[in-house]
Specification:
The protein is mainly alpha-helical. It has one domain (about 5-45). The chain is about 70% helix and about 0% strand. The longest helix has 21 residues, at about 25-45. The N and C termini lie far apart (about 45 Å).
């Protein structure tokens, strides 16, 4: 297998990237914002 730029990414990120290409980018951004907010909320509780 050839080494490409994507080989440095985690497999999950590559899969998410290819899925993101197929779905509405706005929906992906909103989902990640919601997830990030949830993580920040969890961190701020501690």
């Amino acid at each position: 297998m050839r080494k490409t730029a994507s080989s440095t990414q985690p497999v999950g990120e590559i899969i998410l990237g290819s899925v993101a290409c197929k779905v509405d980018k706005k929906a992906v951004l909103e989902a990640s914002l919601i997830r990030n907010r949830a993580v920040l909320d969890e961190l701020s509780k501690h």
